[in-house]
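Input chain follows. Return structure tokens only.
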Amino acid sequence: MALFRGTREFKGVLQLGRSASTMAYRNLSNIPNDIVLIILSYLNESHRSSLRSVALVSRSLYLCAVEFLFRDISITLPGTDHRIEGDILKALYRLPPNVARCIKNLHIECRGPSRRIKSGLWGKEHYEPLGFYYNIEENFKHAKDLITKHSENSRPANYQYDLNQHEDNWRPLADFIALLGANRAIRLNWNYPRQLPRCVRMALEASPNSCTVYINIYQVARNSVHENDVDTATSPCLAGLTCGIHGAGLKIEQETYKIIQAIASGLAPNIQELCLYRQTLPYARSDEDYPYLPSAYVIERAFLQQRRDPLKNAAKASKGGKLQRLVLDGPSLGDVTRFLEWRDLIDISCLKTLQLTNTSIDEATFLELANNCTFSSLETLILWIGRVELPKPEAIAEHQAFCTFIRSLRPLEDIRIMADLRSDLLTATLNQHGATLVNLVLSLRPKSEFFAVSIHDVEAIAKSCPVLQSLSITIPRSKGDAAEVAIYRALGSIPQVRKLFLTLDASYIAPGIEYEEDGFREYENDLPNDPSFDSSEQRVFLRNEAPFWRFPRIGHLCNGLINAALDETLARAIFKAIESRTLDILQVDSIGACEFEPDRPYPIGFDQIIYQITRCWWLERNPRDDRRDDLMVEDVTPKTRLIPPEQKPLEVDVAEVVCKVWGDDACVGLDWTEVWHSFPLLGG
């Protein structure tokens, strides 16, 4: 997009109003077709609504835009087989004629409630089906019921009968896939809580264009299963597999691991992506059947029937797994023992994406990765580093081991790190990979004591990363003073940055005297006084009953609310302070409100205030060249990150703090919800 700004040919291309359609058509008709496709590709990536507007200018532009508008198609179906055939036909009927030649990715989803979640590792907010990766801690009772009713021995007795009976329901989808596969190679993403139907799998396998399927698997069967299950696990079109270990017992976990490793090591000859998550369960009614993996016994029997070696010998002999993406997400899945198993099973040199998250990688694992693994094709690295409960010497040793590992890699394009950051970690990353980085995610753990991102770190990123386009980073708030504004200015100096995902950390971890008592890390009781506080702000806020709480002063609470308050006015001011003409998208949110001690929440009584004032804003620059200063702003606050508290009148001591921050008007009833606001940046 930046290539064409200001050129005579490109002027007017995005002027999409009715009066400008003739100009847009005339200008685009003079541009080579390959350049038009580049423009449409940019719009498809960042400004989908504008792409639709461009498509309406003329028939020729519509035909070009269709190539991008219909690359990804999602069909959402009910969770039962009742009337599946009719729902599929209705979905296909809505597609424009002759659109089959454009489709590359076909998604089959389950209809149900959804929730909006924010993933710090990915640096952006996204939607996912409610519960497809359902954590046990979030809904223990529901999870317990599922484990009981869908254990390894719970396959329905009429399973084979059901499959044969409902196979015809999926025939329209199989015919559509056959039509798509005749034109080009397509990718089928199967996110539906049923086995992949035989007719659909056979349509993929029969395609002359090497179609692929990516499946989410939720259960593991240890007894005999349907023939179609084994055929799916050994299918040449199986390119991706996501499986969850729900923690129902060590024996089931070991069984799952054996099955997954067998598939990855060559049972599925063309598998490229493997994602293994711990403590996950599907969302569905308890009487529904879920996709199953065939048991290890059935897999090994299939190997023998095909005159192959047994599993353990086949893996060692061929090392045939050519995985390009490996995700191990969960406790103990990324430790050195587990990873050594994967190193012996698959060809590590083929990996393009490695993700080890929600697990604490120890020093030994990093050193093993650095010294005995060759990641010659790696492009994307996603890691969770360090453990808050570790003593500082051990945590520092882990960071040093990570630095050794990061220096051993070829220059990467995409690095995402969840860590207690230290300056040496950031320096090692930038020195080795800065010149090639396109996407960088530095996700601080909330209330980290190790390292706060400063202006010098942002300047180092700007200097070391000439092609960086997307940055996700956590920066400390300091009431919008000169130091905070300087960080925003420094972000604007990153040469090619297009997307920024900023998390504003409002927490205040004051230095204090640490001591050990009964195995707990303790601090001196009260937060240190601040000379800028007046007499009323110096008073200690004695409200929390926990004996290990570092009691904040009134002034600390006032500062915490000021730093946490994030409304549209402040979000726009931050975008303006960054002063970058290349910046197209800014997401900014707030964490750590009134938090003064690691791993401890805000004081009792402030929940409804913090829920109201901590927001997440999405700001996007207008794609039109003549309106680049216009911002499209949306409140995308993920309301599920906190349980909505009960709205009630503020208690006296809490209301006193609110009055100090937003004036006396905020203390009348619940009026504070209407009068709260953010505070301007210095010089803003």
